[in-house]
Amino acid sequence: AQKITQTQPGMFVQEKEAVTLDCTYDTSDPSYGLFWYKQPSSGEMIFLIYQGSYDQQNATEGRYSLNFQKARKSANLVISASQLGDSAMYFCAMREESGYALNFGKGTSLLVTP
Amino acid sequence: DVKVTQSSRYLVKRTGEKVFLECVQDMDHENMFWYRQDPGLGLRLIYFSYDVKMKEKGDIPEGYSVSREKKERFSLILESASTNQTSMYLCASSLGPIAYGYTFGSGTRLTVV
Fold first, then answer.
1. Would you say B94 and B28 are in contact if contact means Cβ atoms under 8 Å apart?
2. DSSP letters along B54-108, please?
């Protein structure tokens, strides 16, 4: 069964606008971590933000914030003030305490337009 | 600058060849992983290793094997390459605790003809 679901294959946003990329997850493990990665066309995977299942506050890193709704099992990424350089694939991923590996969603392709 | 290095950025191999993809990390990480990435499918785990000489199958291990003789090196082996193994292969490493995150290599784009 798919553990991470990203329902938006592609998104458009205008420069300087905010955008939300959706991610829902499925686990019965009480301890887990949620990650977002950015993959530009060059192919490298760039870590953006992390949220632990026991963290009380939503994680923030600069223009990135993670909207963590534990009861809904959602971990949406919010990018504020989009820039042209934000155009990339974005992957949501989860690691459960009981495992070692990251489980990835299928990704969302974001295009930022002038 | 800490990193994960994959030996080849692009590779073209013939059907039936034995292919080795090499990955080296300089961060003294216990865990290492091999993923393949295909459009519309995201990243899928092939194999991982949590210690030297230890390996575990991931979600799609068929047609692959791995080797980890030293802590810093994790090799992915395609025993007999087939065209359906044409893909982007990503290596990653991590420390044990969840919050420490994962570091990825720059990927190897393998084409099997």
1. no
2. --EE-S--TTEEEEEEETTEEEEEESS--GGG-EEEEEEEE-SSGGG-EEE---E
Token readout for A33 is: 């971590």
Could you say which of B35, B43, B50 has the minimum Cβ distance to residue A100?
B50
Residue A26 to residues A56, A74, A97, B96, Cα–Cα distance (Å) = 19, 9, 13, 22
For chain B (length 113 residues), average pLDDT per consecutive 10? 86 97 93 94 94 92 96 96 97 83 92 98
Distance from the A45 Cα atom to the nearest Cα atom in chain B, whole angstroms: 6
CB contact under 8 A, A44 and B106: yes
- 8 A C-beta contact, residue A97 and residue A32: yes
Q: Which residues fall within 8 angstroms of residue A90, CB to CB, at 6 or more apart?
A: A21, A36, A37, A38, A39, A48, A77, A107, A108, A109, A110
Contacts of A43 in chain B (CB under 8 A): 88, 106-107, 109
Minimal Cα–Cα distance from B90 to chain A, Å?
9
Q: Please report residues of B whose CB lies closer than 8 A to that of A100.
A: 31, 33, 48, 50, 56, 94
